[in-house]
Write a structure and sequence with these properties.
mainly beta; 44-stranded mixed sheet; 6-stranded antiparallel sheet; 3 helices; 56 strands; elongated
């Protein structure tokens, strides 16, 4: 199978259409913040389907850095120097004054701080719109009862980290406030004005009380080496957080980096162009209230103690008589009824399955540290002090890697994420146009309440509960590998508790039948214990390369869809259990085969499909044991004659278990057949029609009905026997067949 990537180009609008009703989950996209409106627009005609368009939004579309932000140079001739000396300071120049252990800056200008303030405070209180350039030139600031740096008012403060210097800011574990109405400052560096950090020096912040660095307006980082330890959040910009470059290391008992403005739709976002980020957070790694856009950078994120610390979840296990009420319910009943002769899934009876019944718990707004309450004064009298443990407010814990209350867009960067919760999460839409991702997640690898769209990049999800999830999912490019303990790719929800987080606990993913998995390009490889591709709606595929291995449990299916599966292009290779076997539907213009074996086949045993001339359609080695395979390729032609063999070996090169080039030999012929319809159903006796009928009790959800029959050719205890006739010369079930050989360099997938 020739692998290829259709990469999304920066700045080009990606028309990633997801067909859905106007009242479906896609309607949430229209509520996205204005900060993200360039990313998502919706259009719906009355009574018609709505379509979602995702654009390649960049960080520069949301925020800019002006000349003051990037200017780190200063002149000693025009600057005011503040020489710190233990409990006092000497001020040379205008605009600042020292009183005991407090230095107050009251006018715009440049101020250069050096030395040590052992127990004091730098206050910026400029009553006009002037900017303050605060240069940290080897300064160590400590306060035993409050914040060492308190910016009360100014037009803007630019904090420069002088080259070659190490600057340290350490606040108190308990703050003393003047009265009960006061709760600020609340961070080691606390600003009520726009705050920008630049320079090439080092800033170490010890936020013992609450946050490390907080701005009640904009927080921008242009450059510098920033190391933060925080009792709650590391970096907070209420209106926005923007990072152009720099090296940022954060250890936080709350969130690593966050924006919090949920009242103004133009604000509350995070925009990152580049930099290096090493974040260990008890809660979320990087969280934008309204949107999060990342263009580049290197990220190492560990949240909630990592995936090893995640809540243990169980996936969908079996059917009635085969493991309880699993997804699909009783044997061949409910969703997952036996395929009909036309290759489509038989209509389910009016009984709910666990996907439809799976409720979702609401996730409250994020903010406080995991297991640690937000700081609040126990007694805000002048003599009273507080610590971070005192609070009456509790919030549910979120431990996601990248999280956005609105749209989450990644245009590039290198990401290593180990999260106890989702690695990437959006309450609206996720768009990945580029980047390299190494993900281990305790819950979903990638989750969007509305649309998940991947058009480029390399995504390697090595551990997850569900790999990729969304109200709708579109894959048009990229190289994606997914390992999931439940569903690999899941449209419109499943057993996890992410569904409905933005709707107060209602199951936002309850399928209306209009939800859609769309694959137009890219490379997707899935290893799932639950369903491989699971759409609580329909699937369309017109391009790309898809391989699915698993499940081995008959209560799940490698392909699982409620509506239809129409394939018009691309390469599809599937191996898994047979109890819920589905294949692309009869409306498909590209041909497919669905083969069921009598006995389970060993993992790694080759499957090879060739045409009558010996040209290879595909040769592949399933990663897990299997009892069914589904193959769809542009090389399958109506009226063509084909042979399917197992075993043997190939001298070709395997990628995702699929071989290219080389020679296949030594296999045993299982079945020979002619293609006469869009989907050809096979067993070891030849062409067959998939059975229908409810049958007897006692089986897993499967093809043979309630009797537990898990093959399309067997429906005992009430099932209908196959009506197809094996082709002439086809080996009967159980025969050794003939040895097959050939070259794997033909029209191979």
């Amino acid at each position: 199978m020739s692998k290829f990537i259709v990469a999304g180009k920066a700045g080009l609008i990606l028309l990633l259409a997801a067909v859905m009703s106007a009242c479906s989950t896609t309607s949430n996209a229209s509520t996205s913040s204005s900060a993200g409106t360039a990313a998502v627009t919706t259009a719906a005609a009355s009574g018609a389907a709505a379509s979602v368009q995702l654009a390649s939004v960049k960080a520069a579309d949301l925020v800019s850095f002006d000349e003051e932000d990037v200017a780190a140079a200063w002149s000693a001739d025009s600057a005011t120097t503040i020489a710190l000396s233990g409990t006092g300071a000497a001020v040379t120049g205008t605009g600042a004054a020292a009183s005991g252990n407090t230095v107050t800056i009251s006018a715009g200008g440049t101020y250069v701080l050096s030395g040590t303030l052992s127990d004091g405070q730098i206050i910026v209180d400029v009553q006009d719109d002037s900017s303050v350039h605060l240069v940290l030139n080897g300064a160590t600031l400590t306060n035993s009862s409050s914040a060492p740096v308190y910016i009360k008012e100014a037009g803007k403060v630019i904090m420069t980290l002088e080259d070659g210097t190490v600057n340290t800011v350490t606040d108190a574990a308990k703050y003393v406030y003047p009265d009960a109405a006061t709760d600020e400052p609340s961070a080691a560096i606390f600003s009520k004005a726009d705050l920008t950090i630049n320079g090439t020096g080092t800033l170490k912040v010890n936020g013992n009380y609450n946050d490390g660095i907080t701005s009640k307006d904009d927080l921008k980082v242009v450059s510098g080496i920033i190391e933060v330890q925080a009792a709650d959040d590391g970096l907070v910009g209420k209106d926005l957080v923007a990072v152009q470059d720099g090296s940022i290391t954060i250890t936080a008992e709350g969130d690593g980096i966050k924006s919090t403005n949920d009242e103004d739709t133009e604000k509350g976002f995070i925009a990152i162009s580049g930099g290096t980020f090493d974040i260990t957070a008890a809660n979320d790694g990087i969280q934008g209230e309204t949107s999060l856009v990342i263009d580049g950078g290197t990220y190492n994120l560990v949240t909630g103690g990592g995936s090893a610390n995640a809540e243990v979840k169980t996936g969908d296990e079996g059917g009635f008589g085969g493991g309880g009420f699993g997804k699909g319910g009783m044997g061949g009943g409910m969703r997952g009824q036996a395929p009909s002769g036309d290759g489509t899934q038989a209509a389910p009876p009016e009984m709910p399955d666990s996907d439809a019944m799976a409720g979702a718990t609401a996730e409250a707004a994020e903010g406080t540290a995991a297991g640690t309450a937000a700081p609040a004064p126990a007694d805000n009298s002048a003599a009273a002090s507080t610590d971070t443990a005192a609070t009456t407010e509790t919030e549910s814990t979120s431990m996601k890697g990248l999280k956005s209350g609105g749209d989450l867009t990644v245009n590039g960067g290198s990401f290593t994420i180990d999260s106890a919760d989702d690695a990437l999460h959006s309450n609206s839409n996720v768009s990945i146009t580029d980047g390299e991702f190494g993900i281990t997640a305790g819950d979903d690898g990638i989750h969007a309440d509305s649309l998940t769209a991947i058009s480029g990049g390399t995504v390697n999800i090595t551990k997850s509960y569900e790999g990729i999830e969304g109200g709708n999912i579109t894959i048009s490019g990229g190289d994606i590998d997914v390992v999931a303990s439940d569903d690999g790719v899941n449209v419109a929800g499943g057993n996890d508790t992410n569904a409905g987080q933005a709707t107060g606990g209602q199951d936002q993913f309850a399928s209306s039948g209009s939800n859609l998995l769309t694959i137009t390009g890219g490379i997707l490889n899935v290893d799932a214990t639950g369903d491989g591709l699971d759409s609580n709606g329909s699937i369309t595929m017109s391009g790309g390369t898809v391989t699915v291995y698993g499940p081995t449990n008959d209560g799940n299916g490698a392909l699982d869809y409620d509506g239809s599966f129409e394939i018009t292009g691309g390469y599809l290779v599937v191996a898994g259990s047979a109890g819920m076997l589905q294949a692309p539907g009869d409306a498909s213009s590209q041909y497919s085969i669905a083969m069921t074996f009598t006995d389970s086949q060993e993992a790694g045993q080759l499957v090879s499909l060739k045409d009558k001339d010996g040209n290879t359609i595909t040769t592949f080695a399933p990663a897990k044991s299997y009892r069914s395979v589904v193959i769809s390729s542009p090389d399958l032609k109506e009226g063509g004659s084909y042979t399917l063999s197992t075993g043997g070996s190939s001298t070709g090169t395997a990628v995702d278990g699929v071989y290219t080039d080389g020679t296949y030999s030594g296999g045993t012929e299982v079945v020979s057949f002619d293609l006469s319809s869009s989907v050809t159903w096979l067993n070891e006796s030849g062409v067959t029609e998939a059975t229908q009928g409810m049958g007897g009790m006692g089986g897993v959800r499967g093809q043979g009905g309630f009797d537990g029959g898990t093959r399309p050719d067997r429906g005992t205890a009430g099932g209908t026997p196959p009506t197809g006739t094996p082709p002439t010369g086809a080996p009967s079930a159980g025969t050794g067949g003939t040895t097959q050989s050939g070259t794997d360099s033909g029209t191979q997938m």
